[in-house]
Design a protein that fits this description.
Largest sheet: none
Strand content: under 5%
Distance between the termini: 19 Å
Order of helices and strands: HHHH
Number of helices: 4
Number of strands: 0
Length: 127
Amino acid sequence: MESVTYRAVLRAVKLLNMALMTLAAVLCWHMCYAGAAGDHMTGLLIGVIYFVLYMTYGRIYESFLISLVRIAEMVYSQALALLMSDGILYVVLCLMAHRLVAPVPVLALFGAQLVLSILWSVCAHRW
């Protein structure tokens, strides 16, 4: 039987992944889209929406099974979850701005999150 501390640390490692991806999305919103739509409370709303989306798609695609799958499978499933979450984030940003916004920052966000995902997967799998 697994110890309680092991499960708590494992959950903390998974939450770290979700927090890193959400922080990257909020930073992208703040640096690129905050002037077009919203105020400071909107950044909090974007963070909550993105966290819930990424957590949901991560569970659907089984992105957080650290000890059961290979690193490549973890990165692939996280990339799918990120792609879906970033796509929905882009739609939300367009709706908030009442126009089409530039997609380049969201694509750069996806690339940065993919690098974070690779680093997190390697470190978590080694742990």
